[in-house]
Design a protein that fits this description.
It is a single chain. This protein has about 375 residues and is of the alpha/beta class. Helices cover about 45% and strands about 15% of the residues. The chain has a 9-stranded mixed β-sheet, sandwiched between helices. Strand 3, helix 7 and strand 4 form a beta-alpha-beta unit. The longest helix is centred in the N-terminal third of the chain and has 17 residues. It starts with a helix and ends with a strand.
Length: about 375
């Protein structure tokens, strides 16, 4: 039955004209995605975002035939799938407005790890860029050995980040701009294979998809949305790294940049991000810890909170207070996972607790009891 669900979920992603917003409408309206391929045309046309053209596309027999082929590929290669309506879908991505409808994954890294950093940069990395990337990752590994490093498996800073993570025993995930039936660039294949044992490979493209130019921008939104923050090490004034940084900023995620000489072409992008306050300046791992308030989280647990002083708390608010009383601080996404609430509902509850003087919000999306 589970495989049948995956078959129809894949099928939906293959229908031209169905994007994230429409997919969510379909799930909300029909509940069971299989009904998209079983209901009458008159029923489907009442779903917001579904036009007659899309209905015609849905009923093309090639759609489910291709989905069946993809399902065989998934089963043969023991891939994991994450559908946007599933509980297993990565929490940080779930609330991004353009989150992928379906993700394909092979690996062992936790995509809901407590702390995740994306590291991106130019494909023409300098010795300085490679050196500071490795130094930051090395220092991160000492303090947070479970932290997940995310990048795009591209030349330059990306592959340096992956290799450094592997070297210092951090899990690392590569987000691909193509299907999982290939590795691009091919010279990174050995690193990608090693990542399957200490991280993983993630994509929203079905097998057979080539690494076409437009796919890299789509890939970048996953790199930005999967993490707590994005670090740009080196970048020209235009390029994929800056696109990723801007996407991360649009998701209200922290963005950091390593500065460079004013005359260096591949530091121009980082310098511009810092100049216009789109990114905080980072020279070492401690700068990231400080900006994300992760240092404070390492200082030890708080003393038990005297909950009797909190008045007029709802049962849901009391659950949040109980959870926060057991830890120094907790990031919004991890708090959502812990209490099993959607982000929008959790944010509303936290706002009420802030108004009651019970909790406060810190940089980096961290919350603590007052």
């Amino acid at each position: 039955m589970e495989n049948q669900n995956v078959l129809y979920q894949i099928g939906m992603t293959l229908v031209k004209g169905i994007g994230t917003v429409t997919a969510k409408q379909i799930v909300e309206t029909l509940g069971d995605v299989s009904l998209l391929f079983k209901e009458k045309k008159s029923v489907l046309e009442r779903i917001p975002g579904i036009s007659r053209r899309i209905v015609t596309e849905i009923h093309r027999p090639e759609i489910l035939q291709q989905a069946e082929k993809e399902l065989l590929f998934i089963e043969k290669n023991k891939l994991q799938t994450f559908f946007i309506g599933d509980e297993t879908y990565p929490e940080r991505l779930k609330d991004c407005i353009d989150a992928p409808v379906m993700l394909y994954y092979k690996g062992n890294a936790n995509l809901n790890a407590e702390k995740i950093i994306s590291i991106v940069g130019t494909r023409n990395a300098s010795g300085y860029g490679r050196e500071i990337t490795e130094k930051i990752i090395q220092d991160v590994s000492v303090v947070y050995p479970e932290l997940l490093i995310v990048s795009g498996l591209a030349y330059g800073i990306d592959i340096c980040a992956h290799k450094s993570a592997l070297k210092h025993h951090l899990p690392t995930v590569g987000v691909l701009a193509h299907g999982l039936d290939r590795i691009y660039p091919h010279v990174h294949r050995s690193t990608a294979v090693e990542m399957l044992q200490q991280g993983g490979l993630l994509t929203d493209f079905v097998s057979g998809t080539a690494p076409d130019r437009q796919n890299f921008i789509k890939r970048n939104r996953i790199v930005a949305g999967l993490s707590d923050c994005t670090l740009v090490v080196e970048s020209a004034e235009k390029g994929g790294a800056l696109i990723t940084a801007n996407i991360a900023d649009s998701y209200h995620r922290d963005v950091f940049a390593v500065p460079g000489k004013a005359t260096d072409a591949y530091s121009a992008g980082c310098n511009v991000l810092i100049k216009y306050k789109k990114a905080a300046l980072v020279a070492c791992a401690d700068d990231i810890f400080r900006e994300m308030c992760w240092n404070e989280a390492k200082k030890g647990e708080k003393k038990p909170v005297q909950r009797k002083i909190f008045v007029d708390l709802t049962s849901e608010e009391q659950i949040l207070v109980d959870v926060l009383s057991k830890t120094a601080q907790m990031q919004l996404n991890m708090l959502a996972i812990t209490v099993n609430l959607p982000i929008h509902q959790l944010a509303s509850l936290l706002f009420e607790l802030e108004m009651k003087g019970v909790v406060r919000c810190l940089p980096g999306g961290l919350y603590e009891l007052i």
